[in-house]
Write a structure and sequence with these properties.
The structure holds 3 protein chains of 3 kinds. By secondary structure, chain B is an alpha+beta fold. Chain B has 2 helices and 10 strands; from the N terminus they run βββαββββαβββ. The chains are: A alpha+beta, B alpha+beta, C alpha/beta.
Chain lengths: ~475, ~120, ~425
Amino acid sequence: MNYDVCIIGAGITGAMTARKLAAYDVSVAVLEAAGDVAMGATKANSAIVHAGFDAEEGTLKARLNVAGCAMMPTECAELDVPYDNCGSLVCAYSEEEIRHLEKLLARGIANGVPELRIVGGEELRRMEPKISPDAVAALWAPTAGIVCPYELCIAACEHAAINGAQFYLNFPVVSIVKEDGLFVVSDGKQVVRARYLVNACGVHSAEMAQLAGEENFPIRIIPRRGEYMLLDRAEGDTAEHVLFSCPSANGKGILVSPTVDGNLILGPTAAAIDDPDDTATTEAGLSLVQTGARHLVPGVNTRAVITQFSGVRPTPVGADGDITKSDFYIHVSEQIPGLLHLAGIESPGLASSPAVGEYAVELLSGMGLKLDKKENYMTGRPEKIRFRELTDEERSAVIAKNPLYGKIICRCETVTEGEIVDAIHRPIGARDLDMVKRRTRAGMGRCGSGFCSPRTVEILARELGVPMDEITKCGGGSVILNGGKK
Amino acid sequence: MSMIKKTCIVCPIGCHLEAEVDGDGKILSISGNTCRRGEAYMRDELTDPRRTLTSTVKVDGAKYDRYLPVKTDGGISKGRLFEAMEVLAKITVTAPVRRGDVIVENFLGEGVSLVAGKTVDSE
Amino acid sequence: MENKKIIIIGGGPAGLAAAIEANNAGIAPDDILILERDRELGGILNQCIHAGFGLHMFGEELTGPEYAGRFIDIVKERSIGYLCDAMVLSVTADREVTFVSPTEGFCRVKAGAIVLAMGCRERTRGALNIAGTRPAGIYSAGTAQRYVNIDGYLPGKRVVILGSGDIGLIMARRMTLEGAKVLRVCELMPYSGGLPRNIAQCLDDFDIPLYLSHTVTGIHGKERLEGVTVAKVGDDRRPIPGTEADIECDTLLLSVGLLPENELSREAGIVLDSITGGAQVDETMQTSIPGIFACGNVLHVHDLVDFVTKEAYRAGASAAAYVTGDAAPVGDVLTTEGKNGVRYVMPQKLNAQGNLTTETTLFFRVDNIYRDRAVVLSVDGREIFRRKKRFLEPGQMESFALTEDAIAAIRGGKTVTVALD
């Protein structure tokens, strides 16, 4: 197939680029090595929409973060993705840390972050009653918020898909060659041809640059793993805002934050690792997460943990080797005409993503891509019913229309069979248990999917027309039932 | 003479049984039991250990169930459990089935019946 | 849907028995409604196809479906109201229940009395904080049981089981019979949490080794489980460095405890017991909210279903008495407590003016293995009676009925203590 633009990587960066291109009369292919979108750093991060005071003034990161944060409420509203503009607090425990807050405040103001100010201990405790008694001040950023990163990514992809973008999942790119002015991208089985190529490969973006023939890719990507713990919804009110410790060279430190789904998230650690796909958790890491979380909220109930997970973020390192000064690497390739790199996008990549997407479109336009408004452009994405969020009257109405919405499959998260069936048949439909989980929250609750997973496997098998023992947890060889049928 | 220890499986108490056995395998005494059934169990364990087998067989034409729980209504020789499982794998019954229905009489020639454990309505 | 005299949440053994006893006490069958979230009545017993149920109730060993079937038959014969595929979404303190079902839609129903009988769930890997990857092949024992017994699929072939609770032991035998190789059972504690006879007939019969004071410290494999790391633990239950061993397996079953499912109770404002995880109740099984009763594994985790049934009979009768106005007036309330090795006592409250009889039973569990001890019941520090016990194990629920002396003492007392001596 021939396309105008081929985006490699369906994380939040690739997804937002596809979404922003959807408004134009441009044919788009999105290639993703994994079996679902949002499977890299997008799947497992802190889920924070940062206000934009962390990045150095004048960097691309600072500009896109502040812009992306400002866009986020509208983006989420359009895509029907829950967004909570809860604000963030960077907490200081000493005079030295207060000086650090002042530095962040000055930087934030320079970056154009609105309404930023330092609050004293008393006001901090009023805002956040469970905060450590040792915290003496905090930097209050009311524009910060929280969003479910993979839901935002899935929604952006669904929006791009209904506007014609073609998604190729399970498409690990093994070769890129240029023929007759077109990039020919192959996974060894199929090929996709496109005039413009967008490298949005996260931790694999340096490899992809190399594959495309780029000889002077100026950054190295260090995979850095962050471990997290997710606590039960009963603990969701432990924090009302995103709570940060003062940052260190290793990142923004361990944070404590509510999630849009009402859980509490703790983490991340930050450890450089060798294998960019190694998302194991470690005993030491989980212990650090707990210690760090207690530093902020001594009463945090880490026994109410539902799951622990880790994500690998693509930390770019420039020539000088200093990771603290690293910026996003968003550049048009000088060597390979038609190639655009969206690389080195670690935190605040989620917050920046809508602005990154717009900027990418602007750069593509500068590279010669013709942007005519699409005539039958559709905003939003196909209607999504969240049974748990409905009013009683709305519940009656949806069940009357489709009785499957009256059948609860996931009792912890109140997810109905109707929602699971919908997730399977939506654009970029669910094919495995984890895809159902990310789209519906079935299996995300406190029983660890013990009750609903057999039922979800059964529904997947029925809807996809395959036997239950072909259903996987997360694609590939992750079959749920591999001991044979009776 | 030797002492043989077993945990009684007759009831949930799980008495710690002990048997004194002489060189010819003759049982001299049994202790640790708190009821007669425990003593009988120990005697059987030393001579002819038996187990109730519970498993499932396929059921066709049922409203919900694809498998029917079954059990032997008495013990079968412990050494034949896996042989019994192979036989069960070949059995398919058709709904409706009532709890207690005999599916196989004199199962494996062990003098016990294989019975249905659940009432299963047809579609 | 019209209002009901009694709504019972859960159609497992507890809910079924409560419904039958409420009907015995004079509540009309169509004034009772059992709300069951599964497609049929019977609860978790439907997948517990092994024998071992009913020795106390029926004097014979039944399988789970057989045991449930006897009660289901009665409910159906008497046309006691029930609705399957019905999930309760909320319960309020003034006894309003909302639920959904594919056939009835969204419903809001008032009840004269409510019996909570939602059962329990299994503890998960998340709750254990086991580090490592997150591949397929890790199941709670009950989930694996459903796959094997209801769906007819064997989840894996080489199995390690963490936790020696009864479901784990039963699944060791079940998966072995179905052709899997169960490599070992690891138990964190120095003793098993399961019944001794299940160790004998589920592990020993098949030469499956039980490793006490061992746990799983690591999980390996990207897509499907490829192995686990197990380690010996010290007295502090922490892994001892240097004792780790990697075991190749494609399946890890977790049988590490059950937790009463009290989300609805909590949201209704019912006072819960931090040790049992269930509601605090009095001898009538009434919770802290008048007219709401609880029984079965939602109240405290039982070892035998027979005791669930007996407890549910009491809850059903009490709910009926509440509705008909026959309940005893609430007088001075005593609290019960466990001491010196007794983890908890249920009921947590006793009504001094209540209908206490020599059939009123106190249930409790001990916190360790004990040999040749006495269980002592005291009221306000004064010993009333003692019972000798040869064996006391955490896996077994203990109980005794009140004596006339104890009842007399309770009528004028404040605190009832059960302790080991």
